[in-house]
Design goal:
5-stranded mixed beta sheet, RAP domain-containing protein, RAP, 5 strands
Length: about 625
């Protein structure tokens, strides 16, 4: 039973994976013909360092270091490094302690070349168990301090070279030098050459940190976008995405689209995914045509040669703009169904998002097969679920949008202990949990669901935190385009049916709807019940809430006028997103008569009379005006 397992199993210790994206990006720099500042290993001398003169480790530590001793120390350190390399001995060996301590004292006196050579020698030392191993931590800390002290003396190329050394030592995110060097280089981004720009962005990607003015990267990239290789553009894209910096220059976005479309056949998977990520993150409505052009070209066989993860990012590409290429999505779903056993829970979550968002209905029905198999597979992913509990919650939510659910899993997901494990103190800000709880309350009401549900106190807080304010005219808050349509419709409705109210019928959805209580005998609207719950309290408003005892007479109807905003409709179609379709389904299950008005229909109405006639026609479908 999955519920019992979720409470009794212990999550496995997290594995440490190498960042393959950074490894690939560095290989791009190494293989490029551009002049990148890459740190080379020291030249191996033709001497077999298998013996070590122990006398070189015995040095006086109480005297000031002079020039002769500095030279001897440096040569001895070189010998120790090659000895460790040749015999696979670690520098943390206690016999080196006094020598390393003395050498650390000498580091501030090293010349520029000797300092760089010391970093090179660190590269050939056998790997320590931890960066905090004895001797090793003293050594790299002393080098780090000295490198930081010399930052102002070094130009951009020298800074990049030393940063590359720290990256190759796997210490870039731990040492202080790379952060401080990026801070200095951040003041000169607009003056950088193409290779300097790419390498600096690579370091931003490694550090997962943005510079003070990331816009300078964009300004400079616009100059070099045609000069750089597609792989170099991929490295730039990784940096923009990992530092959460969207591209705002429409001309630059257009050039990126053109380069990717023209070189799609030869684009490597990681480069392709990196550029897709930043385009997805940055694209707005003006880029929809380019997005369509790119996806159309991808649908001509490119997917068959790509990895499953790359295919996933292609399927996700249009999500932010609700743009769906059905042929591509069906192809990706087929790949997932074929390779499902090897798919990570994180990737299952994202493919479920694609199916749930686009409300996919393919001719082959592959989405039904995939949803069924994913539900079955989750029973065998207990360890992974405990490690990534939010992925599990999201998977279940997206699957409900596709019409697939498992009551036992829903009960396990909504269990108080599991929610505490998954969300901690952030439970009341998790909208997908709010959606799941509403699903079991509304959709499973007639299926005798007896599992756990959210406590009323949590729903009340969620109702305050996760629902948008009910829009009003003449307030200090700016009204959105969709809210403006909602208010325009309400104003016209008030001339036809004076009693209508904006309410969050289903508080798990951000926007309110217009509620009308209609008296069929009097053929007019009536006020909402005085006992109707107050706004923003998380209560699902049934017809009984808004009508009170009048609901038993059968003479009254409850009507919900719902606005389908631009982000609830799949681009270039009349189909609704999975979440909006679920909202309409839940309104029907609650007993409301639904009147749906699409944003594009409303904008096409030119005059006030056209709009009044339009609303009358729509209302006449559910009530007799």
């Amino acid at each position: 039973m999955i519920g019992r397992n979720l409470h009794s199993s212990q999550s496995r210790t997290a594995k440490i994976f190498k960042d393959h994206e950074n490894i690939y990006a560095h290989q791009v720099l190494e293989q490029s013909a551009s002049p990148y500042q890459l740190f080379a290993l020291p030249k191996q001398e033709h001497i077999a360092y298998t013996d070590l003169d122990e006398s070189m480790l015995s040095l006086k530590s109480d005297e000031k270091i002079n020039k002769d001793e500095l030279k001897i120390l440096f040569e001895n350190f070189k010998a120790v490094a090659f000895y460790c390399n040749g015999t696979n001995s670690t520098i943390s060996d206690q016999r080196f302690k006094a020598f390393i301590s003395r050498y650390c004292d000498a580091i501030p006196l090293l010349s520029h070349e000797q300092l760089l050579e010391s970093l090179r020698l660190l590269l050939i030392l056998p790997k320590e168990e931890t960066v905090r191993s004895d001797n090793f931590i003293e050594l790299w800390n002393a080098l780090d301090v000295e490198c930081c002290r010399r930052i102002e003396d070094w130009d951009t190329d020298e800074l990049l070279l030393v940063c590359d050394a720290w990256y190759k030592l796997d210490l870039a995110r731990i040492c202080d030098f790379v952060k401080e060097a990026l801070r200095k280089m951040g003041r000169k981004v607009r003056k950088m050459t193409a290779s300097q720009l790419v390498q600096t962005m690579f370091l931003c990607n490694v550090m997962r940190c943005s510079l003070y003015e990331m816009i300078d990267f964009e300004v400079n990239l616009a100059r070099y976008v045609q000069e750089m290789s597609l792989d170099e553009l991929g490295v730039m894209s990784m940096g923009f995405f990992k530092t959460q910096t969207p591209l705002r220059n429409p001309e630059l976005l257009d050039n990126l689209y053109k380069r990717l479309i023209n070189e799609l056949d030869t684009a490597k998977d990681i480069t392709l995914v990196a550029i897709l990520k930043v385009l997805r993150y940055s694209s707005k409505l003006p880029q929809v045509d380019r997005m369509k052009e790119l996806l159309d070209k991808m649908s001509q066989g490119k997917l068959e040669t790509m990895s499953l993860l790359s295919c996933l990012h292609v399927a996700l590409f249009g999500c932010e703009l609700q743009f769906c290429n059905s042929k591509i999505v069906e192809c990706v779903l087929t790949r997932f169904e074929r390779e499902l056993e090897q798919t990570r829970l994180k990737d299952l979550e994202r493919i479920c998002l694609v199916m749930g968002l686009f409300n996919i209905k393919t001719p082959t029905g592959i989405e039904k097969t995939l949803c069924t198999r994913i539900l079955d597979m989750l029973n065998n992913r207990i360890d992974e679920i405990l490690k990534y509990p939010n992925c599990f919650l999201n998977c279940l939510h997206y699957l409900t949008l596709c019409g697939f659910y498992n009551q036992e899993m829903l009960a396990a997901a909504l269990d108080e202990k599991f929610l505490k494990h998954a969300c901690g103190s952030n439970l009341v800000t998790n909208r997908n949990v709010f959606h799941l709880d509403t699903f079991v309350k509304v959709n499973l009401k007639d299926e005798n669901y007896v599992g756990p549900q959210l406590a009323d106190k949590h729903r009340k807080i969620m109702g305050k935190m996760l629902t948008y304010y009910i829009p009003e005219r003449n307030t200090k808050y700016k009204v959105t385009a969709t809210d403006n349509i909602l208010l325009e419709i309400k104003e016209i409705l008030s001339t036809l049916l004076p009693h209508n109210t904006l309410k969050h019928i289903l508080p798990n959805y951000e926007r309110p709807d217009i509620v009308i209580c209609y008296d069929r005998q009097q053929r007019t609207s009536i006020p909402l019940s005085n006992t109707c719950p107050e706004d923003y309290n998380g209560v699902i408003l049934t017809p009984r809430h808004v009508l009170s005892e009048l609901d038993d007479t059968g003479n009254y109807k409850t009507v919900a006028v719902v606005i389908a905003g631009w982000n609830t409709v799949i681009r270039n179609t009349d189909n609704y997103t999975g979440l909006f379709s679920m909202k309409l389904q839940q309104l029907k299950l609650l007993g409301y008569k639904r009147v749906v008005i699409n944003w594009y229909e409303w904008r096409e109405l030119e005059t006030y009379k056209d709009r009044v006639d339009f609303i009358k026609r729509r209302l006449s479908r559910v009530i007799n005006l």
